[in-house]
């Protein structure tokens, strides 16, 4: 049963001077996730700035994550622009002890549906024994995954679910009507967490929860007990932290720094928070971190 799951999308830490991967800072973020009350973690996804990491770095983070998160669900994202790279990342995820992987559609160059299907057909054969999630994010990849294609992909052995990013809940409802019972659907829209279940989703994959887990965990309790009054109250809290973080890994890391963790740096060219944004994050920490 995966009722109202909160899967944290984990940001990474980098050295502030040379932008090298900071494993100790990353460990501190993972330790927060491990103790935050969520049901699992997605590592090396968009929030983890995966396009800027080498294969070796990604496999190192996979090992660290499985080690720190222990018995918690760990979904290792192994997506890349080519199956050649994905193959090496699947090997790394297995070696780390992962049991679940997510695979972004191939990206950058256009790929028609038949090519996307063939790509996943080969990937799931290599990933035999692992649970596979299709990761769709058309706004970043340029590759659409329509209903017909997701239904075909859901029929592949080992494909157990889909992460839908950058799409309205109406698409999730449409998917749910056509996908098999037990097929898991996660939305990447943090602010829609409370509404996602009614739309047919099994939960959220949330970058915001990597910094502010508390309102999401409280919302899950309210959803499981169908406490409508509490749900309405908590939606305001979720709206506050979602707006404060605004999907930025730099702001997520800033929360950890402000909370006293040795986390810093960035690798991709994303803006650092402004003084006003930092002040807003700092005000939120006592209530929500």
Structural features, described:
This protein is of the alpha/beta class. The chain has a single domain (5-210, 261-268), classed as TIM Barrel (Alpha-Beta Barrel), CATH 3.20.20. It is built from 12 helices and 8 strands. Helix 1 (23-34) links the parallel strand 1 (5-9) and strand 2. The longest helix has 18 residues, at 228-245.
Q: Please give the radius of gyration in angstroms.
A: 18 Å
Number of strands: 8
What portion of residues belong to β-strands? 5-15%
- List low-pLDDT spans: none
Query: Which strand order spans the largest sheet, edge to edge or round the barrel?
Result: 1-2-3-4-5-6-7-8
Q: Which fold does the CATH topology refer to?
A: TIM Barrel
User: How would a textbook summarize the main sheet?
Assistant: 8 strands, parallel, barrel
Count of separate DSSP helical elements:
12
Structural domain tally: 1
Looking at the overall shape, the CATH architecture is: Alpha-Beta Barrel
Based on Cα principal axes, name the global outline: globular
SS content category: alpha/beta
Mean pLDDT, as a whole number? Answer: 96
CATH superfamily: Aldolase class I
Order of helices and strands: EHEHEHEHEHHEHEHEHHHH
């Amino acid at each position: 049963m995966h009722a109202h799951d909160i899967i944290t999308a984990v940001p990474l830490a980098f050295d502030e001077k040379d932008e090298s991967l900071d494993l100790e800072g990353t460990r501190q973020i993972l330790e927060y996730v491990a103790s935050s009350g969520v049901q699992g973690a997605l590592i090396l996804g968009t929030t983890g700035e995966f396009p800027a990491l080498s294969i070796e770095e990604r496999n190192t983070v996979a090992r660290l994550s499985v080690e720190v998160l222990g018995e918690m669900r760990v979904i290792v994202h192994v997506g890349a622009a080519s199956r050649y790279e994905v193959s090496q990342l699947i090997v790394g995820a297995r070696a780390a002890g992962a049991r679940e992987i997510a695979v972004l559609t191939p990206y950058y160059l256009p790929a028609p549906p038949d090519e996307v299907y063939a790509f996943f057909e080969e990937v799931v054969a290599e990933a035999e024994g692992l649970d596979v999630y299709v990761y769709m994010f058309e706004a970043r990849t340029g590759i659409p995954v329509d209903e017909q294609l997701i239904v075909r992909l859901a029929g592949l052995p080992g494909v157990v679910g889909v992460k839908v990013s950058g799409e309205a809940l109406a698409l999730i409802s449409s998917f749910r009507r056509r996908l098999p019972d037990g097929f898991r659907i996660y939305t990447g829209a943090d602010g829609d967490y409370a509404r996602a279940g009614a739309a047919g989703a099994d939960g959220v994959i949330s970058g915001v929860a990597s910094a502010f887990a508390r309102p999401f965990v409280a919302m899950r309790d309210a959803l499981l007990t169908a406490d409508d009054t509490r749900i309405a109250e908590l939606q305001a809290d979720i709206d506050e932290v979602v707006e404060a973080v605004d999907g930025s890994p730099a702001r997520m890391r800033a929360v950890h720094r402000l909370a006293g963790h040795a986390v810093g740096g960035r690798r991709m060219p994303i803006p650092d928070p402004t003084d006003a944004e930092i002040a807003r994050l700092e005000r939120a920490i006592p209530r929500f971190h």
